[in-house]
Structures are given as C-alpha cells and as structure tokens.
Amino acid sequence: MTVLLPPSETKREGGDPARALDLGALSFPELSDERAAVITAARSVSSEESTARTALKLGPRSVEERLRNLELDTAPTMPAIERYTGVLYDPLDASAADDRTRGWWSDHVVVQSAMFGPIGAGDAIPAYRLSHDSRLGALRLAKHWPEASTRALGTRGDGLVLDLRSEGYRALGPVAGALALRVVSVDAGGRRKALNHWNKTAKGRLVALLGRTAEDVDDVDALVAWARAHDVVLERTVNGWDLVAESLEPVRA
After folding, report:
1. Which neighbouring-strand residues pair with 194?
2. Nearest residue to 152 via CA among 120, 200, 190, 105
3. Helix (H) or strand (E) holding 152
4. 127-131, 171-175, 192-196: segment of lowest average pLDDT
5. Where along the chain do its domains lie?
6. What predicted TM-score, i.e. pTM, was given to this entire model?
7. What DSSP string describes 88-155?
8. Of 19, 15, 27, nearest to 83 (Cα)?
9. Which end of the chain is more exposed for a tag (fewer CB within 10 A), N or C?
10. How many degrees, rounded to 5, is the angle at CA 228 between CA 8 and CA 181?
11. Of 109, 112, 105, 239, whose CA–CA distance to 170 is shortest?
12. C-alpha 168: how far from its chain's center?
C-alpha cells in the first residue's frame, strides 16, 4: 500500500544541523536532476524580495520565507513527516509517534512536494517555500513534475495507492487507478456534505490510525475491512468512495 499526501504550506523550523540535504539519499533518487533544476529555479526567484513576492505568492508576513530557498544546501533537515505542519499533519503528532508507527509511515507514505517531487515520509528535508502553483520563470512545475513523478511512483509496484493529495498536487504526479476519497460530514438526517478545508483533518486522522495499527492493506477490500474493524466509515457511492469525517473523531486507538 502507498498513501500519497500533499505537503503543507506551513513547516516546522529547525532540524539536525549535522545532516544537510542530500538529493541522492531521498526516496526516488532517479529524480535528483529534476530536483536540482527546481532548486536552482527556486533559488533564482527567491534572491530578490520583489521577485519572490510574485513568484512564491508571499505577503508581508511571509516574505522572509524566501530566504529558506537560499539555504537549502546548508539548512538543518528533519524527516518530512515532521517537517510539515497544519491541519493534515498535526493529527499525526509525528514527533511523539513510536517506532512502529513511524516505521509504517516510512514504508507506506509518500509526500508530493513541489520542490522535491515525491519523497518518503522519513526523508530528511530542510524547510522551504514553494507551492504547486508557484512561478519559477521558464521552469513550469505543471510540466516539469508530472511525467517524472508518475514514472517514479510506478516503481512502487501494483499495490493499492490511496491518494489523499489535493487536486493541485495530484496533477504533479498522476497515478492511474489510485483510490481517491471524498471526505464528507453526515448530519442528523443522514444528508452528506463534502468538506473542504477540514477534510485535511480527517485525512490526517486516517493516516495516523493507519500508522498506529501498522496493518498490511493490499487492496480496496482489505482497506474496507480494516476501516470496519476500527469503526471508520468508508463507503462506496455512485461517484466513488466517501470517508465520513465523524467516524474519525476522536481518533480511535
């Protein structure tokens, strides 16, 4: 099983100062050239505040984040699953997770980064500022990443791919046949409403529970059985698969 996650705009600072970014040590090392090209382009647009504001869509409070892109080679690193923060990643509480949970994430979770392409949950990365819709001059992320990312993700085999990425990041590495979930809320009358911002919280809780149970899930039937065993409501509809957010609140041990 492979779980695909989007990155987060917000990132934790700090990390291990003795471990610098090593592109060849990241998952999918065959993407090193593509990664280096994006880093070079990001460094170029980040060198001046005026260009960084437009290219990276930075406001007055976030403009200093451009400096992260100038220090990628020397900045401290930490595992990607800890680097990202926000409504999807906070439910993971990755820094406090036990070795079994972290091991499952490292084996099964891939994050689709705009800067690095697909990376493993345990890959050591620095803080950076780049989004799927950032403008990097002649280098267009929407053309640069899809073919290379799809090819790299294909090396993981034919097992179940659970795609929890947002639309913009899904476009950077399309995976044919992946299982995408619609996160819904169900009211007292049984009516379902698709969630937008808060769907990330449910996805984070789902990945947290998958990690804690550390179960092998090889196909859709196994995922449905796992969900049922843990009181998670995952149902097939005429439009695909629905994940009921309330069934993951609070997170179940």
Report:
1. 184
2. 120
3. helix 146-153
4. 192-196
5. 2-248
6. 0.95
7. TTGGG-GGG--HHHHHHHHHHEEEEETTTEEEETT-EE------TT--BTTB-HHHHSHHHHHHHHGG
8. 15
9. C
10. 35
11. 112
12. 12
